[in-house]
Write a structure and sequence with these properties.
Helix content is 17%, strand content 41%. The protein is an alpha+beta fold. It is globular. A six-stranded antiparallel beta sheet has the order 1-6-2-3-4-5.
Length: 75
């Protein structure tokens, strides 16, 4: 099953299938370590839903909901 990272619930896991952003945003996401094949665990979302805290490669990362919408995940 596939869905974007912004639709994940807390403690849900998945692997990155693709980063669908373009240009500088794509480069920024890839530079943060969000690359195809990496396992991501959704930790929590801020009270209003933005930003999201995720865990990958042994560290926590906060991403905007708009950025998470460009990350296609395989559950």
């Amino acid at each position: 099953m596939e869905k974007t990272l912004d639709l994940f619930k807390p403690d849900e896991k998945g692997r990155v299938k693709a980063v669908c952003a373009e240009g500088k945003l794509r480069r920024r996401i890839l530079d943060m370590g969000v690359t195809p094949g990496v396992e991501i665990v959704m930790k929590k979302a801020a009270p209003l839903g933005d930003p999201l805290e995720i865990n990958l490669r042994g560290y926590s990362l906060s991403v905007r909901k708009s950025e998470a919408q460009t990350i296609l995940m395989e559950v």
